[in-house]
């Protein structure tokens, strides 16, 4: 009897240790053929808001694409009804980058910013100069239920050379494609730039390069709660693409970027020591294998220091093996490594692709990611004690 009891106890403990996964967006539901590009934040009241692109007709990047969200009031156990928050009619609205401004004295309950891009042609054509990507934001002061009118910030955060469309778009840099970080932006919580809202992004400049070197990551930021924006320098690594950034010290920024040169298949890591304005280094990290994909980073303060989390598909052949890592030394080493999602042997293709992270509490992190060949976007919590 004792052996049976112990066996049952072991099974119960094993089942209890399996993270409970919840489907947030499922392809084919609520009028959308596909959902892509997840982002997630925690509002000041503790609600979680999951954001994604709702692709009306197909799973492709370009077409009739809206931005949608769902809200959870129970830390991700259940999710509310789908809310459509950006609709560019039959054209593209995408690359949602979301952040909560917790430090604006005018909005004591927090103000959510959603940055996004619009486009009027396929990325490949825009890269050739045949089309335009613009940059916008909307904001919400009621937890994501209602939103402000859209504000066009293209002229201050982008460098297009298309004066025939808008006289303000006459920059010698000739940026063409443009994409905000897929995922969340962040706000400096301390240091000389406390309150700064910081959004990683990328662009292509000039004619396409066969090795992808026309791509370059950069960032833009606001020190006055969204009234004005400035651009950072480009990171000094040609071919850097989709990126996400995090604060790792009082005035330091860590950025993880996709390598659009395609070789080596490693994350590009860039570091700034002046609040993300300029970059002191940018190199591929041999500890972060990547199949040419998006990744997410998140940081939080613990005492006087920061914990950095990094999540990506740590596989150089396909989008698979979603792996969470934690660092106490700004990403130089990782003291915590955990596989979050890995394809069973009978499943081919991209099992775990784009993702985002949110801190639930000091002992738990939330993960929103694309699963099983983009059929769904799921949420799961991971203990990090």
Would you spell out the secondary-structure blueprint of this structure?
Elements: H1 2-17, E1 21-26, E2 34-42, E3 48-55, E4 65-72, E5 83-87, E6 92-101, E7 111-119, H2 123-127, E8 133-140, E9 151-152, H3 154-157, E10 175-180, E11 183-184, E12 186-187, E13 197-205, E14 215-222, E15 230-231, E16 240-249, E17 252-259, E18 266-272, E19 281-289, E20 295-302, E21 305-313, E22 322-327, E23 336-341, E24 352-361, E25 364-371, E26 376-383
Parallel strand pairs: 6-11
Antiparallel strand pairs: 1-26, 2-3, 3-4, 4-5, 6-7, 7-8, 8-9, 10-13, 12-13, 13-14, 14-15, 16-17, 17-18, 18-19, 20-21, 21-22, 22-23, 24-25, 25-26
Structure keywords:
3 helices, five-stranded mixed beta sheet, five-stranded antiparallel beta sheet, disordered N terminus
Brief summary of the model shown:
This protein is mainly beta and 385 residues long. It is built from 3 helices and 26 strands.
Please state the overall shape, judged from the principal axes of the Cα atoms.
globular
Number of helices: 3
The proportion of strand residues reads over 45%
Low-confidence stretches: 1-18
End-to-end separation? 34 Å
Q: What sequence of helices (H) and strands (E) makes up the elements? A: HEEEEEEEHEEHEEEEEEEEEEEEEEEEE
Average pLDDT taken over every residue: 95
**Radius of gyration (Å):** 20 Å
Question: Would you kindly provide a written description of the structure presented here, covering whatever features stand out?
Answer:
The chain has 385 residues and is mainly beta. The protein is built from 3 helices and 26 strands. The strands form 6 sheets. The chain has a 5-stranded mixed β-sheet. Strands 10, 12, 13, 14 and 15 form a 5-stranded antiparallel β-sheet that branches. A 4-stranded antiparallel β-sheet has the order 1-26-25-24, with no helix packed on it. The longest helix has 16 residues, at 2-17. The model is unreliable at 1-18 (pLDDT under 50).
């Amino acid at each position: 009897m004792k052996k049976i009891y112990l066996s049952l106890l072991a099974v119960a403990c094993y089942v209890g240790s399996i993270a409970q996964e919840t489907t947030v967006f499922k392809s084919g539901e609520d009028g959308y053929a596909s959902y892509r590009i997840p982002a997630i934040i925690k509002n000041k009241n503790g609600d979680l808001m999951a954001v994604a692109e709702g692709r009306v007709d197909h799973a492709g990047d370009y077409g009739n694409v809206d931005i949608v969200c769902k809200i959870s009031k129970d830390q991700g156990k259940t999710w509310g009804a789908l809310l459509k928050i950006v609709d560019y009619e039959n054209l593209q609205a995408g690359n949602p980058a979301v952040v909560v401004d917790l430090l604006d004295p005018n909005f004591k309950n927090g103000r959510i910013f959603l940055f996004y891009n619009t486009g009027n042609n396929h990325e490949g054509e825009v890269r050739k100069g045949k089309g335009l990507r613009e940059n916008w934001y909307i904001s919400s002061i009621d937890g994501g239920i209602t939103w402000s009118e859209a504000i066009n910030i293209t002229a201050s955060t982008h460098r297009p050379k298309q004066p025939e469309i808008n006289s303000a778009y006459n920059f010698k840099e000739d940026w063409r494609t443009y994409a905000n970080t897929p995922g969340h932006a962040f706000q400096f919580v301390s240091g000389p730039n406390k309150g700064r809202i910081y959004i990683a992004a990328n662009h292509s400049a000039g004619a396409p390069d066969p090795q992808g070197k026309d791509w370059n990551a950069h960032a833009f930021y606001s020190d006055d709660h969204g009234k004005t924006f400035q651009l950072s320098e480009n990171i000094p690594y040609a071919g850097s693409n989709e990126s996400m950034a995090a604060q790792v010290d009082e005035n330091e920024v860590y950025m993880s970027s996709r390598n659009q040169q395609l070789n080596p298949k490693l994350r590009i890591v860039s570091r700034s020591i002046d609040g993300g304005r300029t970059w002191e280094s940018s190199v591929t990290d041999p500890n972060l294998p990547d199949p040419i994909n998006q990744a997410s980073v998140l940081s939080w303060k613990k005492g006087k220091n920061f914990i950095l989390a990094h999540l990506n598909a740590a596989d150089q052949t396909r989008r698979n093996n979603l792996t969470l890592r934690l660092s106490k030394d700004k990403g130089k080493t990782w003291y915590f490594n955990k596989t979050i999602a890995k394809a069973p042997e009978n499943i081919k293709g991209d099992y775990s692709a784009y993702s985002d992270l949110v801190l639930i509490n000091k002992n738990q992190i939330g993960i929103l990611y694309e699963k099983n060949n983009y059929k769904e976007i799921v949420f799961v919590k991971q203990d990090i004690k």
